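User: Can you predict the 3D structure for this chain?
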Amino acid sequence: MREVFTAVRISGSGNVVFPDKLIVCDDYIIHRKAKLIGYKETKIMYSAIGSVSLDKHILFADITIETNGGQKIVAHGFSHSDAKKIVNFLND
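Assistant: Here is the predicted structure, written as structure tokens:
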């Protein structure tokens, strides 16, 4: 399984030009943030995830993933339905 979730461009937080992407795979999740040249990609195995939190705003939601080792990723600007799906994937 591999499912790609892309943040909404109008959500702000730098997403207008380079929206955040979360790629959900069978054993891990990838957070991809594009830059002017290239992108930054972080891969986290599900076994290393310590906590997942969802911060809902009026129109959009942010997802925070923290690992057991203290690494923290915040993905901004997802639709409420996509954010709920992502959190459900990670909590199962």
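The chain has one domain: 2-91. Residues 32 and 41 are 4 Å apart (CA to CA).
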